[in-house]
Predict the 3D structure of the following.
Amino acid sequence: MAQAVARTANIPKLNRFGWLMALYAENHARLTRLFAPGDLVEGRYLSSIGDGLDLYLDVIQTHRYTVELRLTYGLRDPQTGEPDPSAFVRVYRDARQAEATHCYVGRRWQDAIGMYPPPAELIGHRMRMNTFLGKWLEYLAERGHGVATLRRCDENVAEVATAD
Protein backbone atom coordinates (compact mmCIF):
# COMPACT_ATOMS: atom_id res chain seq x y z
CA MET A 1 0.00 0.00 0.00
CA ALA A 2 1.39 3.36 -0.94
CA GLN A 3 1.96 5.68 1.92
CA ALA A 4 0.34 9.09 1.61
CA VAL A 5 2.56 12.01 2.41
CA ALA A 6 0.82 14.70 4.38
CA ARG A 7 1.45 18.09 2.86
CA THR A 8 0.72 21.12 4.90
CA ALA A 9 -0.19 24.25 3.12
CA ASN A 10 2.27 27.06 3.63
CA ILE A 11 -0.33 29.71 4.39
CA PRO A 12 0.91 32.69 6.36
CA LYS A 13 -0.94 33.33 9.60
CA LEU A 14 -2.54 36.69 10.14
CA ASN A 15 -1.53 38.16 13.47
CA ARG A 16 -3.73 40.48 15.52
CA PHE A 17 -2.05 43.61 14.16
CA GLY A 18 -2.55 42.41 10.58
CA TRP A 19 -6.18 41.65 11.41
CA LEU A 20 -6.59 45.19 12.78
CA MET A 21 -5.14 46.71 9.59
CA ALA A 22 -7.60 44.58 7.57
CA LEU A 23 -10.46 45.97 9.71
CA TYR A 24 -9.27 49.50 8.95
CA ALA A 25 -9.30 48.73 5.22
CA GLU A 26 -12.81 47.20 5.38
CA ASN A 27 -14.09 50.19 7.37
CA HIS A 28 -12.61 52.56 4.78
CA ALA A 29 -14.40 50.73 1.97
CA ARG A 30 -17.72 50.74 3.86
CA LEU A 31 -17.45 54.38 4.89
CA THR A 32 -16.45 55.50 1.40
CA ARG A 33 -19.36 53.61 -0.18
CA LEU A 34 -21.78 55.07 2.35
CA PHE A 35 -20.84 58.72 2.69
CA ALA A 36 -17.77 59.52 0.50
CA PRO A 37 -16.17 61.49 3.39
CA GLY A 38 -13.25 62.62 1.23
CA ASP A 39 -15.67 64.76 -0.80
CA LEU A 40 -17.29 66.48 2.20
CA VAL A 41 -16.30 69.87 3.55
CA GLU A 42 -16.04 70.56 7.27
CA GLY A 43 -19.37 70.85 9.03
CA ARG A 44 -22.37 68.86 10.23
CA TYR A 45 -24.40 66.55 8.04
CA LEU A 46 -27.67 64.77 8.74
CA SER A 47 -28.80 61.48 7.29
CA SER A 48 -32.50 60.88 7.83
CA ILE A 49 -34.35 57.85 6.49
CA GLY A 50 -37.68 58.48 8.21
CA ASP A 51 -37.30 55.93 11.02
CA GLY A 52 -37.03 58.57 13.76
CA LEU A 53 -33.38 57.79 14.41
CA ASP A 54 -31.36 60.40 12.54
CA LEU A 55 -27.63 59.98 12.01
CA TYR A 56 -25.25 62.93 12.35
CA LEU A 57 -21.92 62.98 10.59
CA ASP A 58 -19.60 65.75 11.74
CA VAL A 59 -16.60 66.43 9.52
CA ILE A 60 -14.29 67.88 12.15
CA GLN A 61 -11.18 68.56 10.06
CA THR A 62 -9.95 67.79 6.59
CA HIS A 63 -6.29 67.59 5.73
CA ARG A 64 -4.45 66.60 2.59
CA TYR A 65 -4.21 62.93 3.56
CA THR A 66 -6.73 62.58 6.40
CA VAL A 67 -10.32 63.39 7.33
CA GLU A 68 -11.41 63.52 10.97
CA LEU A 69 -15.09 62.85 11.58
CA ARG A 70 -17.64 61.73 14.13
CA LEU A 71 -20.73 59.58 13.65
CA THR A 72 -23.55 59.73 16.17
CA TYR A 73 -27.29 59.45 16.48
CA GLY A 74 -29.46 62.31 17.72
CA LEU A 75 -29.43 60.88 21.27
CA ARG A 76 -27.60 61.86 24.43
CA ASP A 77 -26.63 59.71 27.38
CA PRO A 78 -28.90 60.94 30.22
CA GLN A 79 -26.13 60.62 32.83
CA THR A 80 -23.26 62.32 31.02
CA GLY A 81 -24.97 64.40 28.32
CA GLU A 82 -22.57 62.99 25.69
CA PRO A 83 -23.87 61.76 22.31
CA ASP A 84 -24.26 58.00 22.57
CA PRO A 85 -23.43 55.93 20.60
CA SER A 86 -20.66 57.94 19.04
CA ALA A 87 -17.55 57.03 17.05
CA PHE A 88 -14.67 59.31 16.16
CA VAL A 89 -13.05 58.17 12.93
CA ARG A 90 -9.82 59.13 11.21
CA VAL A 91 -9.89 58.41 7.48
CA TYR A 92 -6.49 57.99 5.85
CA ARG A 93 -7.06 58.87 2.19
CA ASP A 94 -3.66 57.76 0.91
CA ALA A 95 -3.57 54.43 2.77
CA ARG A 96 -7.29 53.77 2.25
CA GLN A 97 -7.85 53.05 5.92
CA ALA A 98 -10.49 54.26 8.40
CA GLU A 99 -9.68 53.95 12.09
CA ALA A 100 -12.12 54.40 14.95
CA THR A 101 -9.88 56.40 17.27
CA HIS A 102 -12.38 56.32 20.12
CA CYS A 103 -15.99 55.44 20.73
CA TYR A 104 -18.23 56.74 23.44
CA VAL A 105 -20.45 54.00 24.77
CA GLY A 106 -20.67 55.05 28.38
CA ARG A 107 -16.99 55.53 29.24
CA ARG A 108 -13.66 56.72 27.83
CA TRP A 109 -10.81 54.44 26.78
CA GLN A 110 -8.77 55.45 29.84
CA ASP A 111 -11.56 54.11 32.04
CA ALA A 112 -11.77 50.92 29.99
CA ILE A 113 -8.08 49.94 29.72
CA GLY A 114 -6.13 52.41 31.89
CA MET A 115 -3.60 55.07 31.00
CA TYR A 116 -0.70 52.75 30.12
CA PRO A 117 -2.13 49.47 28.85
CA PRO A 118 0.11 46.66 27.59
CA PRO A 119 0.33 46.54 23.75
CA ALA A 120 -1.79 43.38 23.46
CA GLU A 121 -4.60 44.98 25.46
CA LEU A 122 -4.40 48.17 23.41
CA ILE A 123 -4.64 46.23 20.12
CA GLY A 124 -7.55 44.22 21.55
CA HIS A 125 -9.36 47.43 22.50
CA ARG A 126 -8.79 48.90 19.03
CA MET A 127 -10.04 45.68 17.45
CA ARG A 128 -13.27 45.90 19.47
CA MET A 129 -13.81 49.58 18.57
CA ASN A 130 -13.19 48.98 14.86
CA THR A 131 -15.32 45.84 14.81
CA PHE A 132 -18.10 47.96 16.35
CA LEU A 133 -17.56 50.62 13.66
CA GLY A 134 -17.67 48.03 10.87
CA LYS A 135 -20.91 46.52 12.17
CA TRP A 136 -22.45 49.95 12.65
CA LEU A 137 -21.54 51.00 9.09
CA GLU A 138 -22.98 47.74 7.77
CA TYR A 139 -26.19 48.34 9.74
CA LEU A 140 -26.46 51.92 8.42
CA ALA A 141 -26.11 50.68 4.85
CA GLU A 142 -28.80 48.03 5.40
CA ARG A 143 -31.16 50.67 6.83
CA GLY A 144 -30.71 52.88 3.76
CA HIS A 145 -28.33 55.60 4.95
CA GLY A 146 -25.90 56.91 2.36
CA VAL A 147 -24.85 59.80 0.17
CA ALA A 148 -28.42 60.16 -1.13
CA THR A 149 -29.80 60.70 2.39
CA LEU A 150 -26.98 62.96 3.59
CA ARG A 151 -27.75 66.68 3.87
CA ARG A 152 -25.59 69.48 5.21
CA CYS A 153 -27.29 71.15 8.14
CA ASP A 154 -26.86 74.24 10.26
CA GLU A 155 -25.17 73.24 13.54
CA ASN A 156 -27.53 75.48 15.53
CA VAL A 157 -30.61 73.74 14.12
CA ALA A 158 -29.36 70.18 14.52
CA GLU A 159 -29.54 69.80 18.28
CA VAL A 160 -28.99 66.37 19.69
CA ALA A 161 -31.98 65.10 21.66
CA THR A 162 -31.79 63.86 25.25
CA ALA A 163 -32.65 60.19 25.70
CA ASP A 164 -35.18 59.59 28.49
Notes: The longest helix spans residues 119-143. The two ends are 75 Å apart (CA to CA).
